[in-house]
Amino acid sequence: xxxxxxxxxxxxxxxxxxxxxxxGILPTIAADFNISLGTAGQLIxxxxxxxxxxxxxxxxxxxxxxxxxxxxxxxxxxxxxNIMIYFSPNFTFMMVARVLTAISTALIVVxxxxxxxxxxxxxQQAKALGLIxxxxxxxxxxxxxxxxxxxxxxxxxxxFLGIAxxxxxxxxxxxxxxxxxxxxxxIPLSQQLKAVGSAKIGSAHLATIFMLAGHYTIYAxxxxxxxxxxxxxxxxxxxxxxxxxxxxxxxxxxGGILSDWIGAxxxxxxxxxxxxxxxxxxxxSTFSLVLFIPVMMVWGALSWSLAPPQQSYLIQTDPxxxxxxxxxxxxxxxxxxxxxxxxxxxxxxxxxxxxxxAWVGSIIAIISLLCAIFSLTRPTMIRENTSFQSSEI
Length: 393
What we know:
2 domains; transmembrane; membrane; transport; two-stranded antiparallel ribbon; Arabinose efflux permease family protein; globular
């Protein structure tokens, strides 16, 4: 594989860490700033919301800028954001820094994906994209548990200083090894929005949003969940995050295999239904760590199992706008993360019971299932030139 693709993947590891690692150190941040867990959880909510909006919008606004220059500018903004977090004197200042890192992360990830496709042969494009996504997923598997251990030993701020150092390394590597890549034309945002306007496609994206919202209603507060229900220390919490992360990455492969085996449509229904059931059962399994860990692993695997069949379904539904659909599906994921972490914070503040977040998440997953069923039962919209024809599935 092209060395440049590996360099881009390394940059996405740092970008993924900034978003995901906060969930693991949420109680420490809350204690440092003397705020509630629910309030601290808004660091995840705001980041995901800004990320979701910034991705497609900035891709349009910066389409004509030379790609290497834009990538380096994004990495520099990312570096500044993490330095600001390290020196944050209060929660408000940190929130502003999170906005800056969210904007720069959105550009880093989307540029990594688009540049990777341009610098490899057509036969290597799928592998290149897979390597970029692996960079993000590896930050989930290794970053969060390592972050918890580092926070416990040296304080949570050191984590963001380390991420800033990683971004400096990325700046050096990109400067040395990546060639200049001219900008180009991109599809206007208004045209992109029209592509998700149909009931069939729009409800499919809603299914993604509510699936992730149900997941993050509990996952954003997973550390206090483990502390309260299983009375685990930081070492065992980091082990749980590592096991969860491995299961989650494996779940992506499982979703792809299942989709190839029984088809995307059936896979979507099975994954979301099983996910809602597991979230409901999760708090009921905490009386025994031996029972909880397998249930947690199933939850982790299912949390990433929807993406492959959902992407296949979107491509099959409207092949002409498949690239746009993948972009918006990525934004839908971020909106779901934002919505779920916000709902979880509200539930936690209102009930004071951490187990309630899992049960509310299960209800939200059922809403996702209803959206999926609605989408799957709508007529297929077949694009021909600039018009659409409707035909029953």
